[in-house]
Amino acid sequence: MPYRVVHYINQFFGQVGGEDKADTQPFIKEGVVGPGMALKGALGQDAVIVATVICGDGYFNENLETAKAEVLSMVERYSPDIFIAGPAFNAGRYGVACGAICKEVKEKLGIPVITGMYPENPGVDLYKKDAYVVKTSDSAAGMRKAVPLMANLAIKLLKGEAIGSPDEDSYIERGIRKNVFKNELGAKRAVDMLVAKLSGAEFTTEYPMPAFDRVTPNPPIKDMSNAKVALVTSGGIVPKGNPDKIESSSASKYGRYSIAGVEALTADTYETAHGGYDPVYANADPNRVLPVDVMRELEKEGVIGKLYDYYYATVGNGTSVANAMKYAQAIAKDLIADGVQAVILTST
Amino acid sequence: MVKEIERAGLPVVHICTIVPISLTVGANRIVPAVAIPHPLGNPALSKEEEKSVRRNLVLKALKALQTPVDDQTVFE
Protein backbone atom coordinates (compact mmCIF):
# COMPACT_ATOMS: atom_id res chain seq x y z
CA MET A 1 0.00 0.00 0.00
CA PRO A 2 1.49 3.36 -0.94
CA TYR A 3 1.59 6.08 1.72
CA ARG A 4 -1.29 8.55 1.66
CA VAL A 5 -0.58 12.24 1.08
CA VAL A 6 -2.92 15.20 1.43
CA HIS A 7 -1.74 18.34 -0.35
CA TYR A 8 -2.67 21.97 0.49
CA ILE A 9 -2.54 24.78 -2.10
CA ASN A 10 -3.99 28.28 -2.45
CA GLN A 11 -6.66 29.60 -4.81
CA PHE A 12 -4.10 30.58 -7.41
CA PHE A 13 -2.32 27.24 -7.67
CA GLY A 14 -5.69 25.56 -7.17
CA GLN A 15 -6.80 27.16 -10.43
CA VAL A 16 -9.73 28.98 -8.83
CA GLY A 17 -8.44 32.47 -9.65
CA GLY A 18 -6.17 35.34 -8.66
CA GLU A 19 -6.52 38.00 -5.99
CA ASP A 20 -10.21 38.46 -6.79
CA LYS A 21 -10.70 34.89 -5.51
CA ALA A 22 -8.49 35.22 -2.43
CA ASP A 23 -11.60 35.00 -0.25
CA THR A 24 -12.34 31.45 -1.44
CA GLN A 25 -13.36 29.20 1.44
CA PRO A 26 -11.54 25.89 1.75
CA PHE A 27 -12.72 22.88 -0.23
CA ILE A 28 -11.21 19.50 -0.95
CA LYS A 29 -10.84 17.61 -4.21
CA GLU A 30 -9.89 13.98 -4.63
CA GLY A 31 -6.52 13.46 -6.28
CA VAL A 32 -4.04 16.01 -7.56
CA VAL A 33 -4.51 19.65 -8.59
CA GLY A 34 -1.97 22.09 -10.09
CA PRO A 35 1.49 21.63 -8.59
CA GLY A 36 0.26 18.32 -7.15
CA MET A 37 0.88 16.89 -10.60
CA ALA A 38 4.63 17.50 -10.37
CA LEU A 39 4.62 16.39 -6.74
CA LYS A 40 2.94 13.14 -7.72
CA GLY A 41 5.65 12.51 -10.29
CA ALA A 42 8.41 13.21 -7.80
CA LEU A 43 6.89 11.02 -5.08
CA GLY A 44 6.86 8.04 -7.45
CA GLN A 45 5.30 4.72 -6.49
CA ASP A 46 5.78 5.00 -2.76
CA ALA A 47 3.20 7.66 -2.01
CA VAL A 48 -0.06 8.80 -3.54
CA ILE A 49 -1.78 12.18 -3.23
CA VAL A 50 -5.27 11.13 -2.19
CA ALA A 51 -6.74 14.62 -1.95
CA THR A 52 -5.96 18.32 -2.34
CA VAL A 53 -7.30 21.11 -0.13
CA ILE A 54 -7.66 24.48 -1.82
CA CYS A 55 -8.18 27.67 0.16
CA GLY A 56 -7.98 31.39 -0.61
CA ASP A 57 -5.02 33.14 1.02
CA GLY A 58 -7.16 36.07 2.11
CA TYR A 59 -9.79 33.81 3.66
CA PHE A 60 -7.23 31.76 5.55
CA ASN A 61 -5.39 34.74 7.02
CA GLU A 62 -8.46 36.75 7.90
CA ASN A 63 -10.18 33.78 9.54
CA LEU A 64 -7.19 31.96 10.95
CA GLU A 65 -8.92 29.89 13.65
CA THR A 66 -11.99 28.97 11.59
CA ALA A 67 -9.91 28.20 8.52
CA LYS A 68 -7.54 25.96 10.45
CA ALA A 69 -10.45 23.99 11.90
CA GLU A 70 -12.17 23.67 8.53
CA VAL A 71 -9.07 22.52 6.69
CA LEU A 72 -8.12 20.14 9.49
CA SER A 73 -11.47 18.36 9.36
CA MET A 74 -11.12 17.95 5.58
CA VAL A 75 -7.61 16.57 5.89
CA GLU A 76 -8.62 14.19 8.68
CA ARG A 77 -11.25 12.51 6.52
CA TYR A 78 -8.58 11.23 4.16
CA SER A 79 -6.40 9.78 6.97
CA PRO A 80 -3.09 10.78 5.42
CA ASP A 81 0.33 9.54 6.47
CA ILE A 82 1.87 12.89 5.62
CA PHE A 83 0.68 16.44 4.87
CA ILE A 84 2.37 18.65 2.29
CA ALA A 85 1.56 22.36 1.80
CA GLY A 86 2.64 24.67 -1.02
CA PRO A 87 5.35 25.48 -1.95
CA ALA A 88 4.51 29.13 -1.25
CA PHE A 89 7.75 30.72 -2.53
CA ASN A 90 7.77 34.40 -1.42
CA ALA A 91 3.98 34.82 -1.20
CA GLY A 92 3.51 36.06 2.36
CA ARG A 93 -0.10 35.16 3.04
CA TYR A 94 0.28 31.81 1.29
CA GLY A 95 3.37 31.10 3.39
CA VAL A 96 1.61 31.95 6.63
CA ALA A 97 -1.33 29.74 5.60
CA CYS A 98 0.96 26.81 4.72
CA GLY A 99 2.87 27.15 7.98
CA ALA A 100 -0.21 27.54 10.16
CA ILE A 101 -2.03 24.56 8.69
CA CYS A 102 1.11 22.40 8.85
CA LYS A 103 1.43 23.19 12.55
CA GLU A 104 -2.23 22.43 13.15
CA VAL A 105 -2.12 19.11 11.27
CA LYS A 106 1.07 18.04 13.02
CA GLU A 107 -0.32 18.85 16.46
CA LYS A 108 -3.80 17.39 15.95
CA LEU A 109 -3.10 14.40 13.69
CA GLY A 110 0.46 13.64 14.73
CA ILE A 111 1.74 13.11 11.20
CA PRO A 112 4.82 14.65 9.56
CA VAL A 113 4.30 17.91 7.70
CA ILE A 114 6.30 19.63 4.98
CA THR A 115 6.03 22.92 3.20
CA GLY A 116 8.31 25.01 1.00
CA MET A 117 9.14 28.74 1.10
CA TYR A 118 11.67 31.38 0.17
CA PRO A 119 13.72 32.22 3.29
CA GLU A 120 12.32 35.79 3.48
CA ASN A 121 8.69 34.62 3.50
CA PRO A 122 7.19 35.74 6.84
CA GLY A 123 5.77 32.23 7.21
CA VAL A 124 9.31 30.91 7.70
CA ASP A 125 10.07 32.64 10.98
CA LEU A 126 6.60 31.90 12.27
CA TYR A 127 6.55 28.17 11.53
CA LYS A 128 10.05 26.83 10.82
CA LYS A 129 10.07 25.11 14.21
CA ASP A 130 6.78 23.36 13.53
CA ALA A 131 7.30 22.10 9.99
CA TYR A 132 10.04 21.16 7.63
CA VAL A 133 10.22 24.19 5.36
CA VAL A 134 12.09 23.33 2.19
CA LYS A 135 14.11 26.25 0.89
CA THR A 136 12.75 27.48 -2.46
CA SER A 137 13.37 30.37 -4.83
CA ASP A 138 11.25 33.53 -4.51
CA SER A 139 8.84 32.77 -7.36
CA ALA A 140 6.95 29.89 -8.93
CA ALA A 141 9.71 29.70 -11.54
CA GLY A 142 11.48 27.60 -8.90
CA MET A 143 8.72 24.98 -8.81
CA ARG A 144 10.71 22.41 -10.74
CA LYS A 145 13.56 22.60 -8.29
CA ALA A 146 11.41 22.78 -5.15
CA VAL A 147 9.09 19.84 -5.78
CA PRO A 148 11.71 17.05 -5.93
CA LEU A 149 13.31 18.36 -2.72
CA MET A 150 9.96 18.32 -0.94
CA ALA A 151 9.13 14.87 -2.29
CA ASN A 152 12.52 13.53 -1.28
CA LEU A 153 12.10 14.78 2.28
CA ALA A 154 8.55 13.41 2.38
CA ILE A 155 9.67 9.92 1.41
CA LYS A 156 12.44 9.98 4.00
CA LEU A 157 9.99 11.00 6.72
CA LEU A 158 7.45 8.40 5.64
CA LYS A 159 10.01 5.60 5.65
CA GLY A 160 11.43 6.76 8.94
CA GLU A 161 14.85 7.37 7.43
CA ALA A 162 17.26 9.71 9.17
CA ILE A 163 16.87 13.33 8.14
CA GLY A 164 20.11 15.08 7.30
CA SER A 165 21.21 18.55 8.33
CA PRO A 166 19.32 21.54 6.90
CA ASP A 167 22.00 21.87 4.21
CA GLU A 168 21.97 18.20 3.28
CA ASP A 169 18.20 17.98 2.95
CA SER A 170 17.56 21.57 1.77
CA TYR A 171 15.21 22.67 4.50
CA ILE A 172 15.34 25.78 6.64
CA GLU A 173 17.09 25.41 9.97
CA ARG A 174 14.62 24.54 12.71
CA GLY A 175 16.67 25.41 15.77
CA ILE A 176 17.06 21.74 16.73
CA ARG A 177 20.36 20.63 18.23
CA LYS A 178 21.52 17.10 17.63
CA ASN A 179 24.25 15.23 19.48
CA VAL A 180 26.84 13.81 17.12
CA PHE A 181 30.21 12.16 17.59
CA LYS A 182 33.21 13.86 16.06
CA ASN A 183 36.75 12.58 15.73
CA GLU A 184 38.24 15.71 17.21
CA LEU A 185 37.61 17.36 20.54
CA GLY A 186 35.58 20.54 20.74
CA ALA A 187 38.62 22.54 21.85
CA LYS A 188 40.59 21.48 18.78
CA ARG A 189 37.66 22.21 16.47
CA ALA A 190 37.18 25.65 18.01
CA VAL A 191 40.86 26.52 17.58
CA ASP A 192 40.84 25.24 13.99
CA MET A 193 37.84 27.43 13.32
CA LEU A 194 39.51 30.44 14.86
CA VAL A 195 42.68 29.87 12.83
CA ALA A 196 40.60 29.57 9.67
CA LYS A 197 38.76 32.77 10.54
CA LEU A 198 41.99 34.68 11.22
CA SER A 199 43.54 33.54 7.96
CA GLY A 200 40.41 34.47 6.04
CA ALA A 201 39.63 30.85 5.10
CA GLU A 202 36.12 29.42 5.02
CA PHE A 203 34.68 27.77 8.09
CA THR A 204 31.27 26.62 9.23
CA THR A 205 30.04 27.34 12.69
CA GLU A 206 28.60 24.41 14.65
CA TYR A 207 26.16 26.66 16.45
CA PRO A 208 24.74 29.54 14.43
CA MET A 209 23.43 32.32 16.65
CA PRO A 210 19.75 33.03 16.20
CA ALA A 211 19.24 36.41 14.58
CA PHE A 212 16.80 38.27 16.82
CA ASP A 213 16.58 41.72 15.45
CA ARG A 214 14.31 43.67 17.73
CA VAL A 215 14.16 47.41 18.13
CA THR A 216 13.33 48.97 21.50
CA PRO A 217 10.04 50.87 21.32
CA ASN A 218 10.42 54.63 21.29
CA PRO A 219 8.83 56.66 24.09
CA PRO A 220 5.22 57.65 23.44
CA ILE A 221 4.04 61.04 22.19
CA LYS A 222 3.20 63.22 25.16
CA ASP A 223 1.18 65.90 23.43
CA MET A 224 -0.57 64.54 20.35
CA SER A 225 -2.46 67.79 19.85
CA ASN A 226 0.83 69.43 18.95
CA ALA A 227 2.45 66.52 17.15
CA LYS A 228 3.17 66.30 13.43
CA VAL A 229 2.10 62.84 12.25
CA ALA A 230 3.01 61.19 8.93
CA LEU A 231 1.29 58.45 6.97
CA VAL A 232 3.30 55.68 5.32
CA THR A 233 1.88 52.62 3.57
CA SER A 234 3.07 49.38 2.03
CA GLY A 235 -0.36 49.10 0.42
CA GLY A 236 0.68 50.76 -2.83
CA ILE A 237 -1.55 53.87 -2.75
CA VAL A 238 -0.28 56.21 -5.48
CA PRO A 239 -1.62 59.23 -7.36
CA LYS A 240 -3.78 58.07 -10.27
CA GLY A 241 -1.61 56.86 -13.14
CA ASN A 242 1.20 55.76 -10.79
CA PRO A 243 3.63 58.55 -11.81
CA ASP A 244 6.72 56.80 -10.42
CA LYS A 245 5.72 53.47 -11.95
CA ILE A 246 6.07 51.60 -8.66
CA GLU A 247 5.98 47.91 -9.57
CA SER A 248 2.97 45.79 -8.56
CA SER A 249 5.32 43.25 -6.98
CA SER A 250 8.99 43.23 -5.91
CA ALA A 251 8.90 47.04 -5.84
CA SER A 252 12.26 48.62 -6.64
CA LYS A 253 11.29 52.03 -5.24
CA TYR A 254 8.95 54.04 -3.05
CA GLY A 255 7.10 57.29 -3.73
CA ARG A 256 6.73 60.54 -1.78
CA TYR A 257 3.51 62.37 -2.59
CA SER A 258 2.12 65.70 -1.46
CA ILE A 259 -1.25 65.67 0.28
CA ALA A 260 -1.08 69.33 1.26
CA GLY A 261 -4.62 70.65 0.99
CA VAL A 262 -6.06 67.21 0.18
CA GLU A 263 -9.17 66.62 2.29
CA ALA A 264 -9.70 63.00 1.29
CA LEU A 265 -8.39 60.57 -1.31
CA THR A 266 -10.85 59.86 -4.10
CA ALA A 267 -11.20 57.21 -6.76
CA ASP A 268 -10.51 59.87 -9.38
CA THR A 269 -7.22 61.02 -7.90
CA TYR A 270 -5.60 57.99 -6.27
CA GLU A 271 -5.38 54.25 -6.80
CA THR A 272 -3.37 51.25 -5.68
CA ALA A 273 -0.37 49.88 -7.55
CA HIS A 274 -0.27 46.77 -5.34
CA GLY A 275 -0.55 43.45 -7.19
CA GLY A 276 -0.90 41.26 -4.12
CA TYR A 277 -4.48 41.92 -3.13
CA ASP A 278 -7.78 42.52 -4.89
CA PRO A 279 -7.54 46.24 -5.81
CA VAL A 280 -11.30 46.83 -6.20
CA TYR A 281 -11.91 48.20 -2.68
CA ALA A 282 -8.80 50.39 -2.51
CA ASN A 283 -9.43 51.83 -5.96
CA ALA A 284 -13.04 52.65 -5.10
CA ASP A 285 -11.97 54.44 -1.91
CA PRO A 286 -8.20 54.75 -1.30
CA ASN A 287 -8.87 56.06 2.25
CA ARG A 288 -9.56 52.40 3.06
CA VAL A 289 -5.79 51.87 2.89
CA LEU A 290 -4.41 55.36 3.57
CA PRO A 291 -6.80 57.16 5.95
CA VAL A 292 -6.23 60.74 4.78
CA ASP A 293 -9.90 61.71 5.23
CA VAL A 294 -9.99 60.81 8.91
CA MET A 295 -6.53 62.23 9.62
CA ARG A 296 -7.64 65.53 8.10
CA GLU A 297 -10.71 65.57 10.36
CA LEU A 298 -8.64 64.84 13.42
CA GLU A 299 -6.24 67.59 12.44
CA LYS A 300 -9.15 70.07 12.23
CA GLU A 301 -10.48 68.91 15.58
CA GLY A 302 -7.07 69.41 17.15
CA VAL A 303 -6.65 65.75 18.09
CA ILE A 304 -3.35 65.78 16.20
CA GLY A 305 -1.24 68.87 15.68
CA LYS A 306 -0.66 68.44 11.98
CA LEU A 307 -0.86 65.82 9.26
CA TYR A 308 2.53 65.87 7.49
CA ASP A 309 2.26 67.36 3.99
CA TYR A 310 3.57 64.25 2.25
CA TYR A 311 2.85 60.58 2.48
CA TYR A 312 5.14 57.73 1.47
CA ALA A 313 4.11 54.57 -0.33
CA THR A 314 5.61 51.41 -1.69
CA VAL A 315 4.21 48.04 -2.69
CA GLY A 316 4.84 45.39 -0.06
CA ASN A 317 4.44 42.35 -2.29
CA GLY A 318 7.42 40.05 -2.51
CA THR A 319 9.59 43.10 -1.86
CA SER A 320 12.96 42.01 -0.49
CA VAL A 321 13.65 42.71 3.16
CA ALA A 322 16.86 44.51 2.18
CA ASN A 323 14.95 46.92 -0.08
CA ALA A 324 12.18 47.52 2.45
CA MET A 325 14.82 48.40 5.05
CA LYS A 326 16.55 50.75 2.65
CA TYR A 327 13.30 52.56 1.76
CA ALA A 328 12.27 52.95 5.38
CA GLN A 329 15.68 54.29 6.40
CA ALA A 330 15.48 56.95 3.69
CA ILE A 331 11.87 57.76 4.58
CA ALA A 332 12.65 58.08 8.30
CA LYS A 333 15.54 60.43 7.52
CA ASP A 334 13.20 62.74 5.54
CA LEU A 335 10.55 62.62 8.25
CA ILE A 336 12.93 63.48 11.05
CA ALA A 337 14.47 66.30 9.01
CA ASP A 338 10.97 67.73 8.51
CA GLY A 339 10.10 67.57 12.19
CA VAL A 340 7.66 64.64 12.04
CA GLN A 341 7.19 63.13 15.50
CA ALA A 342 5.12 60.00 14.91
CA VAL A 343 4.22 57.64 12.07
CA ILE A 344 1.17 55.58 11.20
CA LEU A 345 2.12 52.81 8.79
CA THR A 346 -0.66 50.86 7.12
CA SER A 347 -0.30 47.45 5.49
CA THR A 348 -2.69 45.36 3.45
CA MET B 1 9.73 49.16 7.29
CA VAL B 2 8.07 49.65 10.67
CA LYS B 3 11.18 48.43 12.43
CA GLU B 4 13.53 50.70 10.51
CA ILE B 5 11.36 53.75 11.19
CA GLU B 6 11.34 52.83 14.88
CA ARG B 7 15.09 52.28 14.81
CA ALA B 8 15.55 55.76 13.35
CA GLY B 9 13.91 57.14 16.48
CA LEU B 10 10.30 57.77 15.50
CA PRO B 11 7.46 56.10 17.39
CA VAL B 12 5.43 54.19 14.81
CA VAL B 13 2.18 52.25 14.92
CA HIS B 14 1.45 49.47 12.44
CA ILE B 15 -2.16 49.15 11.30
CA CYS B 16 -2.33 45.77 9.59
CA THR B 17 -4.59 42.79 9.11
CA ILE B 18 -2.21 39.87 9.59
CA VAL B 19 -0.95 40.52 13.10
CA PRO B 20 1.34 37.44 13.22
CA ILE B 21 3.35 38.87 10.31
CA SER B 22 3.63 42.23 12.03
CA LEU B 23 4.86 40.50 15.20
CA THR B 24 7.41 38.52 13.20
CA VAL B 25 8.81 41.55 11.42
CA GLY B 26 9.18 43.30 14.77
CA ALA B 27 6.56 46.07 15.00
CA ASN B 28 6.21 47.31 18.58
CA ARG B 29 2.82 49.02 18.44
CA ILE B 30 0.25 47.07 16.43
CA VAL B 31 -3.41 47.83 15.70
CA PRO B 32 -5.30 44.97 13.99
CA ALA B 33 -7.18 46.09 10.88
CA VAL B 34 -10.38 45.02 9.13
CA ALA B 35 -9.33 42.95 6.11
CA ILE B 36 -6.42 42.57 3.71
CA PRO B 37 -7.83 44.46 0.71
CA HIS B 38 -9.45 47.15 2.92
CA PRO B 39 -7.58 47.43 6.23
CA LEU B 40 -9.29 50.72 7.18
CA GLY B 41 -12.65 50.23 5.61
CA ASN B 42 -15.53 47.88 5.11
CA PRO B 43 -17.38 48.02 1.81
CA ALA B 44 -20.28 46.09 3.34
CA LEU B 45 -21.17 49.11 5.51
CA SER B 46 -22.69 52.44 4.59
CA LYS B 47 -20.27 55.30 3.86
CA GLU B 48 -20.89 56.86 7.26
CA GLU B 49 -20.52 53.62 9.22
CA GLU B 50 -17.39 52.80 7.26
CA LYS B 51 -15.83 56.13 8.03
CA SER B 52 -16.58 55.70 11.70
CA VAL B 53 -14.85 52.29 11.65
CA ARG B 54 -11.83 53.98 10.07
CA ARG B 55 -11.91 56.84 12.56
CA ASN B 56 -11.96 54.41 15.46
CA LEU B 57 -8.98 52.50 14.07
CA VAL B 58 -7.00 55.71 13.59
CA LEU B 59 -7.92 56.89 17.10
CA LYS B 60 -6.76 53.55 18.44
CA ALA B 61 -3.50 54.00 16.52
CA LEU B 62 -3.04 57.49 17.98
CA LYS B 63 -3.72 56.12 21.43
CA ALA B 64 -1.08 53.44 20.84
CA LEU B 65 1.40 56.17 19.93
CA GLN B 66 0.64 57.85 23.27
CA THR B 67 1.01 54.65 25.29
CA PRO B 68 4.39 53.66 26.76
CA VAL B 69 5.33 50.09 25.79
CA ASP B 70 8.31 47.95 26.75
CA ASP B 71 7.67 45.17 24.30
CA GLN B 72 5.62 44.31 21.23
CA THR B 73 2.04 45.24 22.03
CA VAL B 74 -1.15 44.55 20.13
CA PHE B 75 -3.81 47.19 20.78
CA GLU B 76 -7.06 45.23 20.34
Write up what this structure looks like.
- With 348 residues, chain A is of the alpha/beta class.
- Helix content of chain A is 34%, strand content 19%.
- Chain A is built from eleven helices and twelve strands.
- Chain A has helices spanning 36-43, 57-62, 64-77, 92-109, 122-127, 143-159, 166-169, 186-198, 280-284, 292-300, 321-337; strands spanning 3-10, 27-30, 47-55, 82-89, 113-117, 132-135, 228-233, 237-239, 255-258, 270-272, 306-313, 342-346.
- Chain A has a six-stranded mixed sheet, sandwiched between helices. A four-stranded mixed sheet of chain A has the order 9-11-7-12, covered by helices on one side. Chain A has a two-stranded antiparallel sheet with strand order 8-10.
- In chain A, strand 4 (82-89), helix 4 and strand 5 form a beta-alpha-beta unit.
- Chain A is globular.
- By secondary structure, chain B is of the alpha/beta class.
- Chain B has helices at 2-7, 19-25, 47-65, and strands spanning 12-16, 29-32, 73-74.
- A three-stranded parallel sheet of chain B has the order 1-2-3, sandwiched between helices.
- Chain B is globular, with a radius of gyration of 13 Å.
- The mean pLDDT of chain B is 96.
- The chains are: A alpha/beta (348), B alpha/beta (76).
- Strand 12 (342-346) of chain A pairs parallel with strand 1 (12-16) of chain B.
Topology:
The complex is a heterodimer of chains A (348) and B (76).
Chain A: E1 3-10, E2 27-30, H1 36-43, E3 47-55, H2 57-62, H3 64-77, E4 82-89, H4 92-109, E5 113-117, H5 122-127, E6 132-135, H6 143-159, H7 166-169, H8 186-198, E7 228-233, E8 237-239, E9 255-258, E10 270-272, H9 280-284, H10 292-300, E11 306-313, H11 321-337, E12 342-346
Helix pairs in contact in A: 1-6, 3-4
Chain B: H1 2-7, E1 12-16, H2 19-25, E2 29-32, H3 47-65, E3 73-74
Parallel strand pairs in B: 1-2, 2-3
